Amino acid sequence: MSEVRPLAYVFARREEQKFPLSRYLPPCHPGMAEGLLRRHGLPGAPLLDPIGASPQATLELAAGQRILVNCNNPILAFLITLLAQELTPARFQSALAQLSTLRRGSERLEEHLKSLYLTHCGNCRRTVMAQYFLYRRGEKTPHARAYECPACGDGGQKPITAEDLEQLAALQRSYPLHRSRALERASTGSSDSLKLVNEVLDLYPERALYFLFTLMNKVESLSPSAEQQEAIDALLLAVLDAGHSLNPWPESADPPRSLSQPEEYVERNLWLVMESAGAEWAAACRPAALTLWPQLPPQAGVVLHRGRMRELAQKKGTLAPAAILSVIPRPYAAFWTLSAVWSAWLWGRESSAGYLGILERRRFDWAWHSAALQSAFTSAGGMLAPGSPGITLLPEPSTGLTNAVFHAASASQWRLDGLAACGEEMPLQCTWKAPAPVEASAKHNLRRILRDAMRQLLMESGEPQPYALLHTACLAALMQHGCLPHDLKELRGDLPAEVNREIASLFGDEKFLRHLGSSSSDPENGLWWLAACAELPPSLSDRMEAALLELLRRQEHLTVDAAMEALSAQFPGLPGISPQAAEAVLASYAAPIAGSAAWRLNEHDAAPKRSSDIANIQRLLRQAAAKLGYSTAGENPLDFLQHAGDDTPAYRLLVGDTAQVGRLARLPMPPGCQYVYLFPGSRAMLIKWKLDHNPLLAELAGANWHFLKFRTLRHLAVRPDLSRELWALLIDSDPISPEETTQLSMFNV
Question: What are the pLDDT digits (tens) for 112-134?
Answer without folding.
Answer: 999 999 999 999 999 999 999 99
